[in-house]
Amino acid sequence: NRFLCEKFKDEYSALQVGTGESPLTLPFYENCGFTRVGVIENFFTNNYSRPIIEDGVLLRDMIILQKRLR
Q1: Exposed (0-12), middle (13-18) or buried (19+): which is 32, by Cβ within 10 Å?
Q2: What kind and span of H or E run contains 4?
Q3: pLDDT of 38
Q4: Nearest 5°: phi and psi at 51?
Q5: How many other CB atoms are found less than 10 A from the CB of residue 42?
Q6: C-alpha 17: how far from chain center
Q7: What is the pTM of this model?
Q8: Partners of residue 35 on adjacent β-strands
Q9: Beta bridge partners of 64
Q10: Are 44 and 20 a contacting pair, CB within 8 Å?
């Protein structure tokens, strides 16, 4: 996390990631300083031929998170 922030801070004002609404993944990004900035509804159900289930949760929407670098 720190390495990426330091490496790109002069080129970009923010890092952005997209992930499923998983109880395993979202807390990781939030603990790294990312905040939720948007949602792409039905991303996983519309773009994957099989359901994606993570920690018992069916992933439907993509959660967009962002961390400001400067």
Answers
A1: middle
A2: helix 2-8
A3: 98
A4: -60, 145
A5: 11
A6: 4
A7: 0.86
A8: 66
A9: 18, 38
A10: yes
From the CB of residue 2, how many other CB atoms can be counted at a distance below 10 Å? 8
| Nearby residues of 9 by Cβ (< 8 Å), 6 or more positions away | 69, 70
Torsion of CA 34, 35, 38, 44, to 10 degrees: 50
50: tokens are: 């099989």
Return the closest-CA partner of residue 6 out of 63, 67, 47: 67
Residues of the chain with pLDDT under 50: none
Residue keyed to tokens 């920690």: 55
Kindly state the helix (H) or strand (E) to which residue 46 belongs, with its residue range. Answer: helix 43-47
CA 47, 50, 55, 58 dihedral sign is: positive
